[in-house]
Amino acid sequence: MALINKMSKSSQEIEVGGHLIDSSILTKIFDKIMDLQGEFQVEEIDIGKKKQDESFARLSITGKNQKHLDEILETVYRLGAISKIQQQITLKKAPKNYVMPDNFYSTTNNHTNVFHKGKWIPVENMMMDKCIVVKGNKAFCVPVRDVQKGDQIIVGEKGIKITPPERPREGVNVFEFMGSSSSSERPTQHIAKKVADDIYNTKKKGGKIIIVGGPAIVHTGADDSVSELVRSGYIDGVLAGNALAVHDIEYATLGTSLGMNVHDATLAYHGHRNHMDAINAVFKAGSIANMVKTKKLTKGIMYECVKNKVPFVLAGSIRDDGPLPDVITDVAQAQREYKKVLKDASMVIMISTMLHSIATGNMLPANVKVIVVDISQPTVTKLMDRGTWQALGIVSDVGAFLPMVAQQIRKKK
Counting Cβ atoms within 10 Å, is residue 176 exposed (0-12), middle (13-18) or buried (19+)? Predict the structure, then answer.
């Protein structure tokens, strides 16, 4: 550990509890203190004797000076530690709409409590990279666009307790089997079976599963598999952009995706205009739902969503053709609609769409299981590096992987 001038050093005691050893929480705290050239002394430690037992530790942390100590404390608080002396949160009013006070607390996606009026209260609507607004005896995670003048917003790090997710105590599912891996050198069939098991078990327990999808689902021939999952009741919401809907409808009505015949990868005659024909057909009908109602659309992911009353949200981007009348072109409104569908989600499956996957990951609390499937390892890694650390990355061709998942689920019926 780094040597610290005793004349100017500053110290403070912290406490941390939970499954500290097998979830590596205590090790991470030790590492961060040393990485920041601080010192620590373990004053008290009580290790749980059984698998279900929680552990507790009390540490004295020393920094070169108060500023250095504050930097260390800010880091370890975000790993789940709290001050031994409970400190009230500090609140400041938003100076005007959409403006947070200086030094506002920027949230993680971990479960968070704040110490207010002498007791810990949970923060509702947890998301990363937002602020915390306190109203009465409740605290809420709020994006900057929803901040209103006069809102009481937490500033600084005092009085905040973060609880990182812990490794599950019982059973082995795909998340324990893989960890937060993004390797392409895994037995794909075995992983597909594990993912299928987890989807099946999540639904059996009444969980909510959301798909975030890109057009590669259609291009690679996995459209039928995703349609089957929606039709069979395993999917409770679909989040995407204009492209997935356009190419799904193109495939359902013309048998092509971007003008290519999906089943044999040959170029269709005049195929270059097929996606525009699909867009035009939706505009003729007035909406995707009307296209289904008039029987102009009789299969595909969008069709199954409409028929089975599965909500979908299509968020627009500047490169969209059309876009379809169902696409939300106001990005702030699209974010709000995404968040509504994601409410109380148990599992989110992100498939070949970096843009929408990262956006969705930013909206999720850390206890939501996330599966990311993409043929590009950098895409998978980038999502995980952006803060959705609980994600399970699977580097695979979705056209091969998703049919295997659907087949494994089909066997369970």
Answer: exposed
pLDDT attached to residue 382: 75
CA distance 192 to 152: 47
What confidence category does residue 232 fall into, taking pLDDT thresholds of 50, 70 and 90?
Answer: very high
Residue 323 φ/ψ, nearest 5 degrees: -70, 175
CA-wise closest residue to 77 among 17, 29, 12: 29
Instruction: Please give the model's pTM, rounded to 2 decimal places.
Output: 0.81
Q: How many residues does the chain have?
A: 413
Query: Contact, 351 vs 229, CB < 8 A?
Result: no
Model confidence band, residue 385 (pLDDT cutoffs 50, 70, 90): low
Q: Do 174 and 392 contact (CB within 8 A), yes or no?
A: yes
Q: What is the mean pLDDT of residues 390-399?
A: 84
Task: For domain 86-164, say whether CATH 2.40.420.10 is its number.
Answer: yes
Q: How confident is the model at residue 376 (pLDDT cuts 50, 70, 90)?
A: confident
- CA–CA separation, 196 vs 401, rounded Å? 11
Residues whose CB is less than 8 angstroms from the CB of residue 91 and which lie 6 or more positions away in sequence, other chains included: 134, 152, 153, 154, 155
Q: What angle do CA 397, 400, 404 make, to 5 degrees?
A: 130
End-to-end CA distance of the chain: 58
Q: Give the homologous superfamily in CATH for domain 1-85.
A: LOR/SDH bifunctional enzyme, conserved domain (3.30.70.2690)
